[in-house]
């Protein structure tokens, strides 16, 4: 698969706005580890290899264990995730799959029990932002670098 276009070059003002939004998410009160888990899970759902490749090292740098990353797709069945992580992941899935979930009250109740109002808004912004990035990367077929390490 090859990339379709360089969207930064095609619409620099639009991408400047996206970068400003991304920078704003770095100032949120939500812990970076939760933000990175959200980025990874949403990118898994959306099939965004570019974003998964980009955010896996950032997730590890934020203190997320490799074990958590390995079982992230099955987080509901894993004891590795705490209450806040579970609430954030459920909300991320509900909003990413909005057409089929409708953001159910059950997920919102779990979210509200784990996060205050400000944090809920911030989580929603972080989820919205990574979904937008996934749509750019998947839609325009952004390619991640391939590890060229020889296999023995």
UniProtKB/TrEMBL annotation:
The keyword Transmembrane helix does not apply. Keywords: Oxidoreductase, Peroxidase. GO terms for molecular function: peroxiredoxin activity. Residues 12-94 form the Carboxymuconolactone decarboxylase-like domain. The keyword Oxidoreductase applies. This is Alkylhydroperoxidase AhpD family core domain-containing protein. It comes from Sedimentitalea nanhaiensis.
């Amino acid at each position: 698969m090859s990339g379709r276009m360089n969207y930064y070059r095609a619409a620099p003002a639009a991408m400047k706005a996206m970068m400003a939004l991304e920078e704003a998410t770095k100032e949120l009160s939500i812990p970076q580890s939760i933000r990175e888990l959200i980025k990874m899970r949403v990118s898994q759902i959306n099939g965004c290899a570019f974003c998964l490749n980009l955010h896996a090292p950032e997730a590890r740098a934020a203190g997320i264990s490799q074990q958590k990353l390995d079982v992230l797709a099955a987080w509901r069945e894993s004891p590795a995730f705490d209450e806040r992580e579970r609430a954030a992941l459920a909300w991320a899935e509900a909003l990413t799959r909005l057409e089929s979930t409708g953001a159910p009250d059950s997920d919102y109740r779990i979210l509200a029990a784990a996060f205050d109002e400000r944090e809920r808004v911030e989580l929603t912004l972080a989820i919205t932002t990574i979904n937008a990035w996934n749509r750019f990367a998947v839609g325009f077929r952004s390619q991640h670098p391939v590890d060229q390490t020889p296999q023995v």
